[in-house]
Specification:
7-stranded mixed beta sheet; 6-stranded parallel beta sheet; 434 Repressor (Amino-terminal Domain); Rossmann fold; alpha/beta; 16 helices
Length: 352
């Protein structure tokens, strides 16, 4: 069967090949009626784009790049990126774009990847995740003139277009929930402190616990289940023992729940637990985990859409996607009277 060409669509629509190209690629230059007629004919003829010709004419690779500087083991266990990449693909596939995903051990290798991609013109743009304070990747991407969308707070994006969630408000909601239940000593098992979103949560946690006159402690990890379990044991060995723990992701919260079982403790009877992201993991545990919830798939989809906007000439802007909301489940409860009686006066956040 012969391939349907733009020339054939133009003949049937009674317009030029240029007008067909404008209509099929969503570009200005044709009327709404002409665009609708061209698209209808293309659909009737089962027309599909010639990928090679489109790449040559538009000087595009039809590929976006995503580099993850985390261990392969952590990524294989971490539900956040499975949902996030799914959201990206839900938009990319609709536009016949591909995702170049590369896992590297550190930021130095990530920087080298961007240099290689730019030199070889491998991608049309990149998705920048795990923003850092004074992030060295941002000036490099500018120097390479590689379009980029940052996934993170505008205070960390340094003027790049970004899509973000309000971790400050979400952290306040989590701590206020615990305080309302009567918890006075709260621990947090956090991610890597060089990651910007962890740093922002650190500041928010310190501010809200101080405002509510709570004692608090923070243990930083690498986001993995093993580190989440080890840090849970660490904070539970402190005197006084916290009566509630907030985790920076679901994986560490589930690992923490298993530690409670090993120690003969129960949630929420002995310890209230709060996870972050609210993947399916939170709903299949026993007890089901209270979590700060947001739509991760939708998050990834919006990131992809905003990167397409940049390629089409949009000005870089900060786009607030959501503020994670508290989903209260079985792991939330008031502390026991015995635990409350052993809590000393507030001493502010302590890093363990």
């Amino acid at each position: 069967m012969a391939r349907v060409t733009i020339k054939e669509i133009a003949r049937r629509a009674g317009v030029s090949k240029g007008a067909v190209s404008y209509a099929l690629n969503g570009q200005p230059g044709v009327s709404a009626a002409t665009r609708a007629r061209v698209l209808k004919i293309a659909e009737e003829l089962d027309w599909v784009p010639n990928r090679a010709a489109r790449m040559l004419s538009a000087a595009r690779t039809e590929t976006f790049g995503l580099v993850l500087a985390r261990s392969a083991q952590t990524l294989s266990e971490e539900p956040f990126y499975m949902g996030f990449v799914g959201g990206l693909e839900s938009v990319l596939s609709g536009r016949s774009y591909a995702l170049a995903l590369k896992v590297v051990p550190d930021v130095a290798n990530e920087l080298a990847t961007y240099r290689k991609w730019a030199a070889e013109k491998r991608v049309d743009g990149v998705i920048l995740v795990d923003l850092r304070v004074d992030d060295p990747r941002i000036p490099l991407l500018r120097a390479l003139e590689l379009p980029a969308i940052a996934v993170g707070d505008p205070s960390l994006a340094d003027g790049l277009a970004c899509v973000w969630t309000n971790s400050t408000a979400a952290m306040s909601a989590a701590v206020e929930h615990l305080a309302a239940l009567g918890h006075r000593h709260i621990a947090r098992v956090a991610g890597a402190p060089d990651h910007g979103h962890v740093w922002i949560r650190d500041q928010a946690f310190a501010a809200v616990t101080e405002r509510l006159d709570l004692t608090a402690q923070v243990a930083h990890t690498d986001f993995s289940g093993d580190e989440g379990a080890a840090s849970t044991r660490q904070v539970l060995s402190c005197a006084p023992r916290p009566t509630a723990i907030i985790y920076d992701n679901d994986l560490m919260a589930v690992a923490g729940l298993s530690v409670l079982s090993d120690l003969g403790l129960r949630s929420p009877d002995d310890i209230t637990l709060i996870a972050w992201d609210d993947s399916a993991l939170c709903r299949i545990t026993h007890p089901k985990l209270t979590a700060m919830s947001h739509d991760i798939v939708g998050y990834g989809a919006l990131v992809a859409e905003r990167l397409f906007d940049l390629l089409e000439g949009a000005e870089p802007k900060a786009h607030l996607y959501s503020t994670p909301t508290l989903q209260i489940r079985e792991s939330s409860g008031p502390p026991t009277l015995l635990a409350l009686a052993t809590i000393p006066e507030s001493s502010g956040p302590v890093t363990v």
